[in-house]
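Hi support team,

I submitted a single chain yesterday and got back a structure, but I'm not sure I'm reading the token output correctly. Could someone confirm the output below corresponds to the sequence I sent? I've pasted both exactly as they appear in my results page.

Thanks,
R.
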Amino acid sequence: MKLLKNWKSKVGFIIVVIIALCVLFMKVPLYYQARSYITMYVYSKYENKNSLMAKQGITVNIPGGSSTKEKDWYPFMMVFNDDKGISSYLGRDLNLTVLYNFGSFSWNQSSTDFFQDDSPYFASFYGGYVVKDKLGTKKIGFTEKGEPDIQEIFSIPEYDYKHLVLESLGCPPEKLKMEILSYNVKKDVKYAGYDNWVQIDSFMQINSPNHKYRGDRRAYYQYGNPLKKWNQEDFKLITTYGRLYVRYFEEFQDTIFLYVMSPDSTTIENCDATILSKTTITKNT
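Hi R., thanks for writing in. Yes, this is the structure output for that exact sequence:
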């Protein structure tokens, strides 16, 4: 009987120690990193299976941050589908798959560099959009004559940043902003193994993602928690650079965007040269 009591006492002690270690782990930066990697890996796998690419047998392979030697971007690309949201936003029946990446975690941080305003990856993204008109009557981003429709092209990243990113962080609707201050268009650009891309470089005013932590938001599962010592205006206005490559693929009847945006122009150039330009787009056989 005494042995049984001793055994129960040891098991109880072990359970208490395990619980204490789990609680302690949840307080350290590594917890937020592990939570982000596991959550986004599983969720992106699910979204990818239901993506426009999967339905059409297309592979849009954009390298993740693990493709470079530097500790720069999140290790893998993430995927999100939002047919309903983009259709409502633009007033037509569309498919939209978003591929995206943002600044990585540092070992001692509970948030990614997306929130670190002294990082070259602050408020920075790169990735792609695959957009399709369900009726097949419109080349998204282009006029009937095949010219780039600048307003429609910008409406895709605008919807993404304002409504998928900022709103998920709690930015009030009346404060949402993404204004194009200037842009430059280049046509017939060779990129990612294809001719006839349209390249658009832009300078924009947007909301910073930084804000005071207010409760547990789903968005924190991927970006980590916002900076706890933030004592400035929430979602204040900042300027940023953007680069878009846009092409309509007749064989898929899709418009594919490749993009990078960052307040740091050097980050734009480096990402374009070392990651985004390595994208491959293929039809599965």
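A quick pointer for reading it: Residues 2-283 form one domain. Let us know if anything else looks off.

Best,
Support desk
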